[in-house]
UniProtKB/TrEMBL annotation:
It comes from Flaviramulus basaltis. Keywords: Kinase, Transferase. CDD domains: CAP_ED. This is cAMP-binding domain of CRP or a regulatory subunit of cAMP-dependent protein kinases. Coiled coil: none annotated.
Length: 193
């Protein structure tokens, strides 16, 4: 993992002074996480925010009958957190799970909140990250409403060019809101075109 890439990622939101980076690093832990590990469990009251430095993770929702619906995939560098549960100090409705081995920075949400009150650079960074997360959520919502399954798949391939090698087909199908059989048909049609 390249620490400079992490710094570039943070600076893509806001110019972060070195002193602020040092403060953030002092409250962060870099962890190695195995594939299939739930870093946020269903109904767990979360206290951490994560920055994915390597690997692939997902966020999903489980229905009462146990069916999983993928809400999002995460690649390096991205932030992972059940925001509503953190802000409201309530149980998470979502599960966040690693799909591959990952390196993640783990940060206590309450320590970040305290830093936001004391350090304008951290507060600005936090605001910019939230704006980015919201815009990504908004884009995903528009895609779900306005694009058909093939167009959603093509959009996902634009966002994650090697998605078919990184993420199992059944997870991709769930993310697109279709079955694995439908996804196979879409892939075949694209290959035939």
């Amino acid at each position: 993992m390249d620490a400079n890439l992490g710094l570039e990622f943070l600076n893509s939101f806001s110019n972060v002074p070195a002193e602020t980076i040092n403060q953030l690093m002092s409250i962060s832990k870099l962890k190695e996480v195995k594939p299939g590990k739930q870093i946020v469990k269903l109904n767990e009251v979360p206290t951490k925010i994560y920055m994915l430095a390597s690997g692939v993770a997902r966020c999903y929702l489980t229905t009462e009958n146990g069916k999983e619906f993928n809400k999002n995939f995460f690649l390096p560098y991205s932030f992972i957190a059940p925001l509503t549960a953190l802000v409201k100090n309530k149980p998470s409705l979502f599960v966040f799970e690693t799909l591959t081995g990952c390196q993640i920075y783990e940060v206590d949400y309450y320590k970040i909140s305290d830093l936001c009150k004391k350090n304008m650079s951290v507060n600005t960074l936090y605001s910019k990250v939230l704006e980015s997360v919201y815009m990504t959520y908004e884009k995903r919502l528009v895609e779900l409403i306005s694009l058909d399954a093939k167009e959603r798949y093509l959009e996902l391939r634009k966002q994650i060019p090697n998605v078919d090698e990184l993420i199992p087909q059944y997870h991709i199908a769930s993310y697109l809101g279709i079955t694995s059989v439908q996804l196979s048909r879409i892939r075949k049609k694209i290959d035939d075109d």
